[in-house]
Amino acid sequence: MKCFVCGGEMTPYFTKKIVVEYAVEYLDGLDTFEYERCGHCGLVVSKTLYEMSHDDWAKFNCAAHKDLFDGVIDRDVLDPKWRLRLELQSKMFIELLKAGVFEYDWRTIDYGAGDGLLADKLNGALEKSWLKKFDAYMEPRDENYLPPSEVIAGSFDFLTSSSVFEHLLGNRGDVDKVIGLVKSDGVMGLHTLICEEVPRDPEWHYLLSVPVHCTCWTNKAMAIVFEQFGFKHCSYNVEAQMWLFFRNDDAWARLVECRDRLTGTWVLDDRFVDYWKVKPYRTR
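RESULT FIELD:
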């Protein structure tokens, strides 16, 4: 397999076995997952998921997330800080709007919104529907979800994705499709785990009980993507654990001007901000 980011050779990295209590029905007996790593940029992907048919992948992904949102899989155990993280991301976006970095008339989308909690928090605080929602695998829960017909390439001033990029199949063009929704002068918000090196450990918490995380990102891989898609500037908010990728020079200039008045720790650069260098590990 070739790396979809840099074209490097992917080689076997480790094998993960699913324990019996998590071998749920929609796995159809699948209990072994093979992972491969790129020798050049360090990207790690699930070979098993990358080689699934589209129909099987959609079935697998949809069922796993239904279990997650319906409470069959304990989300608070798998990701203890997810509620706090969404709260801080919402507050960050509101602060950027009030500071004039973001604009109220932007066309926006929370891509992979799931149950819509991030947009609900933000829109509730603003008392207006600023951030629209979209999810390819979840049924819309209210009128703020965009239909697929309105999710058009190059049409969004701002796209955010929180805990989504680890679910994108790079060999199917998913990454290109999502980033391609951003305007040529737009901004993209990104929360995913990006580390210096992916642990060679099948028990790593990030692979979850049912391993739907098919793409594990490294700093080097994301830096390549940042340049490939023509982003000019990058910021990282440490507390919200979110990157902002800018093609919009005016919005970037406004962020640079007001950064010292904003809440939290901000790191700004004209290159991808490779903030996390420590081993990305925790026990459950």
